[in-house]
Amino acid sequence: MYVIKQNWLDICFGAMLEYIPEEFITADTTERFRSVAAHIDTIGGYLYAEETTNDEVAKIFSMAGIGHKEISNYKMALDYYFKSVSIRQKNKNEKMLGLVYNNIAAIYNIQAEYRLALEYSHKSIKISEKHNALPIDLVIAYNNLAIIYSQCTDYDTALEWNTTALKTLEDNGLTDNPICADIFIMRAAIFYAGEKFEEALKLDFKALDLLKRHYPEDNADIGTVYNSIAREYFSLKQYETALDYYRKTHGIYNKVYGEDDSDTAAVCGNISKTYVELREYNHALDWCLKALEAQKKVLGEEHPETILRHSFISEIYESLELYEEAIIHLLKIHDFYIKNNQDKIVRIVNERIADNYEKLNNHSEANKYRKMAAEAGERDE
């Protein structure tokens, strides 16, 4: 019986190994994972149920987590990562926990759970440094922490960790490694936050040149650099050029990740903003609605990014003088911030709702929301 059971576990492990690509660098590898994800999850469930302590299973679970991250299934990604952690903790294999904790931190960062993201990122670095991890793994961990601090708008700390990552690359002769492009991209983002747009643009073109030497054109990282370049041209008010690079980004992301993905949705939003600057409001609305539908599916109705999208859509409707439609989206924002007791924002939203009712000559509703705005203002004092 033991031999039969062991053979079955070996078959399960072999199947997962065959299904999961070693790297997710093209649209084909990502799409292949998407097509077999349900089979992988079924097999993974069998393996984990056997309470295996095989470290190779922990490794394959981490790879499955990466796959689910690439297709924006963040819940399943975390599930696999924590299963990998559980196996390695049983084995007392602390050394490999550093890599998994870094992956967990990246997911929490995407989900805007910054406290947890910072916690797991620092744990990752502490373990990786303790066990003299490979320089490239340390670089990834340092830069990931820089990304999280940047998301928290702590740009000085973000730059410190990014500099540590870059120095580690330079000290180990790894400046031609494609990971170096990630460092340039993050550094460019920090300069961008400091409104040093031309410096940021130079760094992103360096990253683009490096990535194109290593990867095909439909690589997701190349799409990410196109997105950063577009953002910088946008800030330099070169909107047509920005739109060109945003469209390149969307083409890659849509191919690699699909429409229902947070990154693809963000690019749709950026294209929308660019059309607003070009005063092409109907195009802007189309792209913003695409972004909203994807974000509702991937992030949920009440994620901060989804709520922010309702705000952008309401502004576009106001520009098109479609005030009833604008109110529908403003009410979504109103309900979210009422629930979260953020009276300062509630006051502002109520004023905007009142303004839209005024333009519809519905003065009773306008007065109602102006009164609600005043009440929110008093609560905020």
Account of the 3D structure:
The protein is an all-alpha fold and 381 residues long. Among the domains are: 92 residues, Serine Threonine Protein Phosphatase 5, Tetratricopeptide repeat, CATH 1.25.40; 61 residues. 82% of the residues lie in helices and 0% in strands. It is built from 18 helices and no strands. Helix 11 packs antiparallel against helix 12 and helix 12 packs antiparallel against helix 13. The termini are far apart. The relative contact order is 0.05. The N terminus is likely disordered.
List keywords for this structure.
381 residues; mainly alpha; Serine Threonine Protein Phosphatase 5, Tetratricopeptide repeat; 18 helices; 82% helix; globular
Q: How helix-rich are the residues, as a percent range?
A: over 70%
Overall 3D form: globular
Using the coordinates above, name the CATH class of one domain: Mainly Alpha
Q: Please state the second-level CATH architecture of one domain.
A: Alpha Horseshoe
Radius of gyration from CA coordinates: 23 Å
In percent, how much strand structure appears in the residues? under 5%
Which assembly state applies to the chains in this document? Answer: single chain
Poorly predicted regions = 1-6
The overall strand count is: 0
For the sheet with most strands, the description reads: none
Please, how many helices? 18
CATH structural fold name of one domain: Serine Threonine Protein Phosphatase 5, Tetratricopeptide repeat
Distance between the termini: 72 Å
- Output the helix-strand order: HHHHHHHHHHHHHHHHHH
Mean pLDDT: 88
Secondary structure category: mainly alpha
